[in-house]
Design goal:
The protein contains three helices and nine strands, in the order βββββββββααα. The chain has a five-stranded mixed sheet with strand order 7-8-3-2-9, with no helix packed on it. A four-stranded mixed sheet has the order 1-6-5-4, with no helix packed on it.
Length: 229
């Protein structure tokens, strides 16, 4: 079976800062499952990223070329490889409070490029939101540990495959569906009185005598229980 070439799904989010370089970056994830580290080729430059990864089990080669909206700082960018994808934290070169209006230089819509809503924070809310992704990368310097990865030209031979706690990357975004379900529960509670009224209407068909009979039977049942005990 011959190998095919596939454009992988790319998701992204960002943070910005005019004063702190470590809060001024792009989160980028390339979905390339079952690609071993030795079959990855990543060429990261200030204005572009070229990614190629071959999966023998999937019989496909993932390939994508991205030309960024603005320059990034290659030396202070980081990456992490897993069995499912390759994740990048790309530091923006220019310190600026405003977000990039888009990831790529071209404004044309790309079918493979999507917003990573799990990591996204609105520009006017980012100061109050914890940067969980960077907190999980504590202690990672430069881009060390890329030994054995061919095609890393533009990265100065450096990489960064260690230490990120990806369980912290959600930033609370994953809890949104739960909030929606909670709203449905409230609606159910509001409907409860209506159900009670329906039952009252049904008892009204017997000219209101059933409820009186019910209350008369209650003491008798109680006395029977007391006699048995």
């Amino acid at each position: 079976m011959s190998s095919t070439q596939t454009t992988p799904e790319v998701t992204w989010a960002q943070r910005s800062s005019s004063s702190d370089p470590e809060k001024n970056h792009i989160f980028l994830t390339i979905a390339a499952p079952d690609v071993p580290k030795e079959r990855l080729e990543i060429n990261l430059k200030p204005t572009s990223l070229t990614f190629t990864g071959h999966s023998e089990s999937k019989k496909t080669t993932y390939h994508v070329e991205l030309e960024f909206y603005a320059e990034i700082d290659v030396d202070n960018s980081k990456t992490q490889h897993t069995s499912r994808d390759v994740f990048f934290v790309l530091r923006k070169k220019e310190l600026k409070e405003e977000y990039w209006p888009r990831l790529l230089k071209e404004s044309k819509k790309m079918h493979f490029l999507k917003t990573d809503f799990d990591k996204w924070v609105d520009e006017d809310e980012q100061d109050g939101a914890p940067d969980d992704a960077m907190a999980g990368m504590g202690g990672m310097g430069g881009m060390p540990g890329m030994e054995g990865m061919g095609g890393m030209g533009g990265m100065g031979g450096d990489g960064g495959f260690g230490g990120i706690d990806f369980s912290k990357l959600g930033g609370g975004g994953g809890d949104m569906p739960d909030l929606g379900e909670g709203g449905d529960d409230d609606d159910d509670d509001e409907d409860m009185p209506g159900l009670g009224d329906d039952e009252a209407d049904k008892t009204g068909d017997s000219k209101g005598k059933a409820p009186e009979k019910k209350s008369d039977d209650a003491p008798a049942e109680k006395s029977k229980i007391e006699e048995v005990s």
